[in-house]
Amino acid sequence: MPLSAPMSEVPVPLRVFVAGATGVVGRALLPRLRERGHHVTALVRQAGRLEGGDLVDAVAVADVMDPRRLRRVVQESAPDVVVCQVTAFRHPDFDVALHRTSRLRDAGTRNLVSAAVSAGARRIIIQSMAAAYCPHGHDVLDEEAPLWTEAPGRWGEAVRAVAAMEDAVLTCPNIEGIALRYGALYGPRTWYAPGGTIHEKVRGSALPLVDDGVGLTSFTHTEDAAGVVLEMLTGGDPGAYNVVDNEPAESMEWLPAYARIVGGPAPVSLTLDQARTQLDWLTVHQLTEQRGATNFRLRETLGWRPAWPSWREGFASLCGLWPG
Questions:
Q1: pLDDT in tens for each of the 324 residues of the chain?
Q2: CA distances from 148 to 8, 104, 240, 279 (A)
Q3: Superfamily of domain 15-190+219-247+292-307
Q4: Which residue, 66, 83, 181, 254, shows the most beta carbons closer than 10 Å to its own?
Q5: Per 3-state DSSP, what percentage of the chain is helix, strand, and coil (rounded to 5)?
Q6: Where is the signal peptide (predicted)?
């Protein structure tokens, strides 16, 4: 299975500034940038945090929440393209991680857009999420579907941050903005990898099914996410793109299959009333009403084909059960 489906033939070396270089997509992206011959500056919050320093040409130390220092290091790197893959999902407490990620995506992205414009960058590419769509209408949604900014609780805060982030990037007149709406990210070091949060929950029978649950999840392998970032350095019109595989899956389908792949017990089944009593609101939403996304725009406008078109093979590969 190839790492990605190629979309461009002759890469043009660029100066690329990568925020979030130590994240799951950033780690997959750096070696690809090196292979293409791009000049890469990686942004880290603390010196010495970047593994694989031989994959970058420079390391900038700054926090995206510190606009003054951020502007200085971005200007010093003189990028053609700025890539933002910043989240806080490493934090073990999901509520805290979601809140911090919301702040990074709102204020942090606005700081990065301002810095990119001041540095003369021509394009900025950000990480967004397909799970932010309002769960109404068609089962599989395209980029024109509304984001669920009126969702309750922390999830509503997260979606509003996504909307603000995308607005800052896509409406700025001085730079080309691209928002890549990933599905549920899986791959090395993600929650679905051995030892990850979802992996451990499923092996411990802590993630149940909900009777008649028709929540849809669109998945994205980190290698496919990195591959699209790479091609978007020079390809594609400004705008939002769903970066998901070809097979949105109901929870009743993917969760038992994943449990078998990781060697866990069959998920227990709850009624909707039981689920609402025993599980947090967001998990119930994901299992019962979340909608999937279509990658039609990306496929038709850029000829993109995911290297991992189905989560089935992707999960198997992640757990060492896929040949090659």
A1: 333 444 444 457 999 999 999 999 999 999 999 999 999 999 998 877 776 668 899 999 999 999 999 999 999 999 999 999 999 888 888 888 899 999 999 999 999 999 999 999 999 999 999 999 999 777 899 999 999 999 999 999 999 999 999 999 999 999 999 999 999 999 999 999 999 999 999 999 999 999 877 899 999 999 999 999 999 999 999 999 999 999 999 999 999 999 999 999 999 999 999 999 999 999 999 999 999 999 999 999 899 999 999 999 999 999 988 765
A2: 34, 19, 16, 21
A3: NAD(P)-binding Rossmann-like Domain (3.40.50.720)
A4: 83
A5: 40, 20, 40
A6: none
SS3 160: helix
Query: Residue 80 to residues 152, 257, 269: CA-CA distances in angstroms?
Result: 39, 43, 51
Rounded CA separation 92/197 (Å): 9
89, 47 Cβ separation under 8 angstroms = no
Which of 97, 162, 105, 165 lies closest to 129 in space, CA to CA?
162
Residue-wise burial string across 87-101, b where 16 or more C-beta atoms lie within 10 A, e elsewhere = bbeeeeeeeebbbbb
Phi, psi dihedral angles at 160 (to 5 degrees): -65, -35
Q: For the whole model, what pTM was predicted?
A: 0.93
Show the CA angle centred on residue 22, arms to residues 18 and 23, nearest 5°: 95
Q: Which two tokens stand for residue 109?
A: 């992205």
